[in-house]
Design goal:
mainly alpha
Length: 233
Amino acid sequence: MSRISVRGFAVASATAVTTVGAVVGVAAGQPASVGNAEATAADATIADIPAGAQAQVQTASLTQQADDQSTQADAAALKSAQEAARKAAAETAQSKKDAADEAKAKKDAEARKKKELAASRSDARDDLGDLVGKSSYSIADTQAIARQMVAGDQFQCFSNIVDHESGWNYQATNASSGAYGLVQALPGSKMASAGSDWQTNPATQIKWGLNYMNDRYGSPCGAWSFWQANNWY
């Protein structure tokens, strides 16, 4: 066997070196001093060790190699776990930021919508001021008032009901029941909750009718669906 250095077998630990030194010392008939054993082992070769002890040296070297590899694997696993934890924390932080940004954008959009709606209602009130306050109203006048007061997507449903109930005559009276006005409130005096001029002002009747439809059916279109099924609402 060639003179391979014991270091070639990666005997890196003190324990392994001590073991080699002890074996060499015993084989030479010398006391197995730990200090001397380490010095001897550092310069020893496989050829200097009795054949019977060479397997022990190789086993110690392989064991040390396995320990080193295990330590390296543990370090790599720890590093990988730390990196995964950092990545997960970063993803969580980004998710929270995205959610906060989305909530802010939604809140801003709602604020803009409310502002636009308020401006639209203000414009509608200004336009409405030109329509009300008359001594009498034509069908066209009354419909123009309704368009200012009823939401665009609900106007047709509201109009369908008024068409059937009064033909857009704000002074329409049902002789048998006493129902009165555009939406045929029964009794007509119910509309006083919307204004004392309920008998002569289409805007007051429309206001009351809208409140009634929204409260009872959710919307004018909800009221129209019920009317179609029952011929009354």
